Amino acid sequence: MTTALPDHDALVAMDRAHLVHPVAPWRLHEQRGPTVLSSGQGVWLKDDLGNELLDAFAGLWCVNVGYGQESVVQAAAAQMRELPYATGYFHFASAPAIRLADKLVQITPASLTRAYLTLGGSEAVDAAVRFIVQYYNNTGRPSKKHFISLQRGYHGSSSTGAGLTALPVFHRGFDLPLATQHYIESPYPYRHAQGGDAQALIAASVAALRAKVAEFGANNVAAFFCEPIQGSGGVVVPPQGWLKAMADAARELDILFVADEVITGFGRTGPMFACDAEGVEPDLMTLAKGLTSGYVPMGATMLSEKVYAGIADGAPAGAAIGHGATYSAHPVGAAVALEVLRLYEEGGVLANGQRVAARFAAGLDALCEHPLVGEARHRGLLGALELVSHKASRRGFDASLGLADRIFAAGYRNGLIFRSFGDHILGFAPALTITEAELDTLFERLAKTLDEVLAAPDVRAALAA
Ligand code: PLP
Known about the structure:
With 465 residues, the protein is an alpha/beta fold. It has 16 helices and 15 strands. It has 2 domains: 147 residues, Aspartate Aminotransferase, domain 1 (Alpha-Beta Complex), CATH 3.90.1150.10; 275 residues, Type I PLP-dependent aspartate aminotransferase-like (Major domain) (Aspartate Aminotransferase, domain 2, 3-Layer(aba) Sandwich), CATH 3.40.640.10. The strands form 3 sheets. A 7-stranded mixed beta sheet has the order 4-10-9-8-7-5-6, with helices on both faces. Strands 1-2-3-13 form a 4-stranded mixed beta sheet. The chain has a 4-stranded antiparallel beta sheet with strand order 11-12-15-14. α7 links the parallel β5 and β6. The two termini are 38 Å apart. The structure holds pyridoxal-5'-phosphate.
């Protein structure tokens, strides 16, 4: 039994009345009300009713260093005391922003030499699109206007970036995608016709990119955007070698290759960046989330020297490149990011993530035996279980069962938070600081949750059908 804290009911009422939630069914949320989180330590969260929860999703795949890292709090407080704000306009800068740009150039792939610091991932993607348009206009190729991305891809929800995102809920009612935004099939082994054969799947993806570019003509295509592992599309893990093959194909096709590492960056898949695992050197890279581990908002758009110089030298001499925001390169965000990056490297956070990844993989793989689980997939500390009602045919569940919400609620009752996607994929991305003992707790609670869901008569009936 938990007892409501005194202001719980008042908070819930105010939320229902006034707070617009991101990517939520607005009226349904008003009826349901919020789950109010109140504190966190390590991988553990508490809600305002006193429930303790193991957060197997690091907030929204962002709190890579875990909650309660005092040195990050100190870095933010010190910067706020010293200089809480400095504009980047009018040639001003702050020391942490300059140091962060330098650090990001050091740790990202060698092709990337310039950093534009944003407030998050959507803004980083939006900046990337604007820079690409400017790049081609400034280098005498103004016809290159078409953008290609992957089905099931997620690239944020800015007014243009949401059209690179290929999830219908981000398009419906928003007049997207634009006529210049196109998709190729997701490299989704479990659901792809070539899924059983890694090389065939990679070849099919490369062929699809070539065909899509041919459809419009390379002179009209600007860029290919992709996540190295698709996150919000259901943790789609392509075969090793896929990213490199796509980067090489883009180069051959003379279109820019943009790696969106908003989720996969900063150790989530093992190395600092997923690009590192395959020696991929993108033309642009978008970053956020793990950059500050969610302690304050910040993202980055990394540019190659070719793209930077194309923009800089193609603009009329002395003319401003008209892209920026009040909070670009915010000193507090930058100070936090520098401390978070120190924790990844000197603090051993990345190394811990790499060390416990085998246990994470084993825990997910073991659940393949469960009657509800069709597939486990993972890389580093990013993983998923795909639930099916029939393993041999890989048949899913009827949406009318409302299973995604029921699984999430059952997990919560068992003290576990994970992502429960609408198509019955469960996503996991714990803090990179998680211990093996905490992973064992995670999997105990997950198995219990799956067993409870399986015990429901309508779920059993779906499996028997
Ligand atoms: N790109 C990817 C791959 C993401 O996963 C996200 C967010 O989940 C974004 C961009 C957008 O980032 P933000 O939510 O910080 O705007």
